[in-house]
Specification:
Layout lengths: L3 H11 L2 H10 L4 E2 H5 L6 H14 L2 E6 L2 E6 L5 H30 L2
Antiparallel strand pairs: 1-3, 2-3
Helix pairs in contact: 1-4
C-alpha cells in the first residue's frame, strides 16, 4: 500500500492536463522527449518541467542516448492510482449499501 506522500506525488503529477497527455502518449511504448513535445504549444524548457515532474513522481523513467532523451512509462507506479480508486469505491459502495438498507427499513416500517 502506498503511503500518503506517494499518493500525493502521483496525483499532483496527474493533476496537470499536459502530464496526463504525456502518460497517454507513452501508453503504447517509449518515446523521445521531442516526439512527446510536438503536440504542445510550449517551449522545450517548459515541456521539460512536465517531464521532470512526471519523473520525480516515479510515473516515468528517462534515459539518454547521445542527444536523445527517451521516456518510458512505469506502469507499476500507476497502481497507486488504481489502489486509491479501489479503496474509495469500497468506501462509497459500503455507504450506499447502508443507505439503501436504511431506506428499505424506513419504507417497511411506515
Amino acid at each position: 500500500m502506498a503511503n500518503d506522500q506517494d499518493e500525493n506525488a502521483v496525483f499532483l503529477a496527474l493533476a496537470d492536463p499536459t502530464r496526463r497527455a504525456v502518460i497517454r502518449a507513452l501508453g503504447p511504448g517509449p518515446a523521445s522527449v521531442g516526439e512527446l513535445a510536438q503536440p504542445f504549444a510550449m517551449t522545450l524548457p517548459s515541456f521539460m518541467k512536465h517531464i521532470h515532474a512526471l519523473e520525480d513522481s516515479g510515473l516515468i523513467r528517462t534515459s539518454k542516448s547521445g542527444r536523445v532523451r527517451t521516456c518510458t512509462l512505469d506502469r507499476d507506479r500507476l497502481t497507486v492510482v488504481g489502489h486509491w480508486l479501489d479503496e474509495q469505491r469500497r468506501v462509497w459502495e459500503d455507504r450506499t449499501d447502508r443507505l439503501e438498507s436504511l431506506m428499505a427499513y424506513l419504507e417497511e416500517n411506515r
